[in-house]
Amino acid sequence: MENFALVLIYLMIGALLRRLPQFPQDTGLVLNQYVLFVALPALVLQKIPLLEFSNQLWLPAITPWVLLVIVAGLVILAGKIWHFEKTTVGALLVVLPLGNTSFLGFPMVEAFFGENALPFAMIYDQAGSFVALATYSTILAAWYNPNAATPTTGQMIKRILTFPSFIALALALALKSWPYPTFFSLVLDSLAATLVPVIMIAVGFQFRLQLDNKDTKPLIFALGVKLFLMPLLALGFLRLFQPDALLLQVVVFEAAMPPMVSAGAIAIGAGLALRLVPALVGLGLLLSFISLPLWYALLQLYV
């Protein structure tokens, strides 16, 4: 739990830095780019070679897609029952199925389950959340935004293949049989160690919470689905295959992550529910510091 306390401290540092005039408003964005292009690829290169292949590794890759299909159906159904506005339905379809499985997920998985659990989280994120962000969320945002052109198949493939952590994943898998030179391992270790403090300070710096009365019902629905129903669905799905205990815990824990910040940015960029989306991302992040320890405790009892 010491690592969890550190995560909270980093968040508070980020929130405090936002109040200082020496830090411009785009500081959080700059820190995010550092993580995307340096720290996260270094972590992937560092941890993926440690992954022991088994016939159950497809589960972390397929679970987020199973959840996406179910959640998308629930959003459409809820929109019809409660008569959500079209932009609200579009925003929830873009944001709700995807969790903050790397920027928040990796630090939290490491804090609660240790470094050995990170490879499972990486598979969940790279094969699930990231690919869904580059394809599903991008297409849906364009579909619900009448002023945007739907990206072509070639553009989506290019986004995936040129994403830094995806390149790192491909390299790590290709080089799995060859040990890294000592100095290169030292460089990777030092860069990967910066991921948790840098990204959590960035999250704290960027944290915003905006509420609108008309968005109360979709907000409560979305938070309930994301923080509680999705991990419950993941647990039910995984039980069908009786996977390794650590794999099950990590996948369910990743499914419990709050809405992805990047998916929220895509929805906002498409002009979808401009007050609901920041509230969903911000409040989801805040509540996850209560819900995630609860899920960890439940998973310890279950396993």
From TrEMBL:
Give me the Gene Ontology terms describing cellular component.
plasma membrane
Protein location: Cell membrane
Stretches that traverse the bilayer: 29-45, 57-82, 88-109, 121-144, 156-175, 187-207, 219-238, 245-270, 276-299
Gene3D superfamilies attached here? Answer: 1.20.1530.20
Q: Which GO terms describe its biological process?
A: transmembrane transport
Q: Which InterPro entries match?
A: Mem_transp_PIN-like (IPR004776), Na+/solute_symporter_sf (IPR038770)
Q: Cite the entry's keywords alphabetically.
A: Cell membrane, Membrane, Transmembrane, Transmembrane helix, Transport
Q: Hey, what's the signal peptide range on this chain?
A: none
Q: How does this protein lie in the membrane?
A: Multi-pass membrane protein
Fetch the Pfam families from UniProt: Mem_trans
Q: What is its main location?
A: membrane
**Which family is this protein grouped under?**
Belongs to the auxin efflux carrier (TC 2.A.69) family.
Q: What is this protein called?
A: AEC family transporter
